[in-house]
Each structure stands twice: as structure tokens, then as C-alpha cells.
Amino acid sequence: MLLSMLPTVIRENLVSRTLPREPEPDLVMDTPENVEAFAVAGRIDGVMSANYLFHSARITQLIQGCEQVVDLGCGPATQLAQIAGLNPGIQFTGVDLSEVMLEDGRRHVRELGLSNVDFAHDSMTRISSVEDASADAVISTLALHHLPSFEDLRQTFREVRRILKPDGRLYLVDLGRLKSLKSVLYFAYMNRAHQPHLFSLDYERSLRAAFVREDFERLASEELGSGARVYQTFRLSVLLLVTTADRPLEDAALRDKLQGMRNDLPTKYRKQLDDIRLFFRLGGLKNDPFA
Fold this sequence. Notes:
Layout: H1 7-15, H2 32-41, H3 49-62, E1 68-72, H4 78-86, E2 91-96, H5 99-112, E3 117-121, E4 135-141, H6 150-163, E5 164-175, H7 181-189, H8 197-209, H9 213-224, E6 229-232, E7 239-243, H10 252-264, H11 267-282
Parallel strand pairs: 1-2, 1-4, 2-3, 4-5
Antiparallel strand pairs: 5-7, 6-7
Helix pairs in contact: 3-4, 3-11, 6-9, 7-8
């Protein structure tokens, strides 16, 4: 996300009506070949690296002191593995409906030598493998738009409430549905020179399938209670976040590690990370772990 290229996109969204939601068609992500192409394109050192590090830092800050964390829609576990590596004293369970995705995630976790991650083959709308009030935190990163309908999103929020402890923590982030087709195509294909076409096509279809802020606000209020608050990137709902309150990260060594990971990003991805930080800060999100 480059600030110098956004004014036209923002103007388009301010004057356009929200595009209708288009549930995602099947991209055959249950074939090993497509899963492998998707996973490789989306690994930590790829075009998503700024997004991964932003969410890993925010989630790490949120889950300090937790013991059990459930990740809904973990996919090939790229995001989950980075978070687990930063928090070796916390046990994580990745939940996904695709067994092929889970197998890729298991392989990725083994390759990284992580011992604090396990996986469950389950739907986000019916998490049968997780008991009531057993999770200290529930997280989900860029997975909710895969749900077929608003009622499936509601059922997922109900499952989140069911498995969370009464004082549990929450970080559900997803794409927001944009108003302008020009904006959808801009964001979907901005990195097309650096990733497989399947990855760009999935991003476009994901943006078309995303829910709107009003959906998140309604369900947060009706299903999650007053502890959950909705944020979005400023003026442009590229990302929507439902989260409980956090506090500044007190672990100095962990803060230094996150800052070092930011500094190690290639310049263009470090700029993207700082843009995401800025847009969420302007959207009201406090306690930036990189500040």
C-alpha cells in the first residue's frame, strides 16, 4: 500500500456505492499443486510479509499471559507459525476446513522446528474440536471472507464466544468490501509482477467476497458483547479488525525483536508495514508495538 498512489482510489470509494458481495468461487485449493503455489507465494518473505508482521506484532501484544490460543482459518499456517515462533510459551491450535492446507501447515511448522502448534480439521462455524470456554484467545487473519454468507459469519462469531473464556482476548482481522471496482483491481493486482496469477486472482475474489464494516459491527455487538470493538484502515476499509483491548507490550526483548524484524524487511515491504500502521492509527487503533 503506497500512500502516493492512493488518492484516486480513496476518492473513488468516497463517491461510489458499495459493491455487492460475491461469495468466492472454488479455486480448487484442495489440490496439492494449487495449495503449494498459493502457500509459496504467501510465505513470510513474499509480498504479504508486511501484513504478516503487522498482525504478528499486534497479536503478540494482545496474547501476552495467555496459555491456549485458537487460530480460525489458519490455512498453510504462515501467519500462525510466525506468531508461534514469537511466543514459544503459548500453545496454538490452527483450525481449517481444508485437510490439504492443514498438511501444508504441518509441514511448514515441522520445517521451522516449532513444538507449540497443533492443528484441527474443523469448520469455523462448528469448531467441534475445541471445548467451551477453553481458549484464552481466538485469532483469525484474512479468513472470514471465505464464509459463504452473513449467517455463516454470525455462526462463526457465536462459536468464538462459545470457545473463549469469559475474559478471553480476540483478534479477528479480514479484508473489507470496497466500494469501487477500480479499488478492488488496484489492490488485487498491485503485486502481480511478483506473485503467481493464482495468488492475485484469489486476492481479487477475496476482496469481492469480503463483508462490510456494518456486518462486523452488528455481529460484534449482538454476539460478542461490549468488550469487542471494530476498527478499519482510515477512510478505506481495506482491512477490518474486531479486537478486545490490549496494552503496550512490556517485554523489552520482544519489542526489540519485533523492531529488528521490521528493520530486516526489504525497503518496499517496510514502507508497506508503516503505511498499514499509519492507516490503522488514523482509524483509532492504539498501542502500536513498533512505536
